[in-house]
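From: lab user (bench 3)
To: helpdesk
Subject: output format question, protein + magnesium ion

Hello, I'm new to running complex predictions and I'm not sure whether the block I got back is the full result or only part of it. Here's what I submitted:
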Amino acid sequence: MNKALDILIVDDRPENLLTLEHLLESPDLNIVRATSGQEALGLLLDHDFALVLLDVQMPDMDGFETAELMRGNKRTRHIPIIFVTANHTESKHIFRGYDSGAVDYLFKPLDAQMLLCKVRIFLEIHRQRQALQAKTRELDARIVELHQLQSELEEKNRQLQLLSSLDGLTGIPNRRQFDEMLGIEWNRMARERLPLSLVILDVDHFKLYNDRYGHLAGDSCLRRVATALAGLLRRPADMVARYGGEEFAAILPGTGLEGAKVVAESMRQAVASLGIEHQDSPVQSVVTVSLGLSAVVPLPGCAPADLLQAADQGLYQAKQEGRDRWISFDCVPAACTPVLT
Ligand SMILES: [Mg+2]
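Helpdesk reply: Thanks, we reran it on our side. This is the complete output you should expect:
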């Protein structure tokens, strides 16, 4: 069942209004009367009329003037008008500025059938327009909803990405992120012909630590080491990642061997000065680390794996030589240019 539509009838003579109302009377119409152009304009602002039947000959403000004022108002501009006139020549009057198809004429004396026919057509158009507007609003709402869903999805993806690039225990980048960044920085340094340094380090006798203090303490130890290491890096492109169980690795783009040695030494000192008790360590009574490092200017034919392997060799050697120290190891596969300074 359609909602009753508001329709405005305007005529300066009450008896004409009565006749019109009588002819139009229908349960699906709500007929509102006005006896002047001014009154009509006032009512137009309060109602959402589907159609206006407008007497042309009225004192003070005639039907055309009233329509002209309706056209000037955004709210009333698109309301269809049927002019009711006794003068046939006025049907030739071109009412400018109104949408074609939104204006029609009826002639007095009124032909009931003609009146109803025209009114029905306008009301049908109005209903269709309303349905279309409702659909448009619905679609707009759907679009807003879709945009919202999309940004929610993007945010979830971002969080996922972040989660999968960070190590769950220590909160610093994980191995996956390390490998990705190593590739990126490798290419960047190759383009810029700058050295790239790697530092790989291992917590000394971590198994003995876990055995003595338990795994919870072990986790806490790794978190503190990670935080201390991450806190040492100064440049935005520097990164330290959890590389394996108790193994960490740092990428230092644009840093040569000498700079990397400075970083390695501060890492060693930073971990030792945390003062994490390690009674069973043959090295010291606190937790220490061993480090290996290497530097290279990346060139075609030389791969990140070569640099990793060299730094790992350094780490191996540092352990061999008694731990709690760093050793630098040259990256010398055929194509690599080691940074020997
Ligand atoms: Mg009149």
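A quick orientation on your result: The longest strand covers residues 289-297. Let us know if anything else is unclear.
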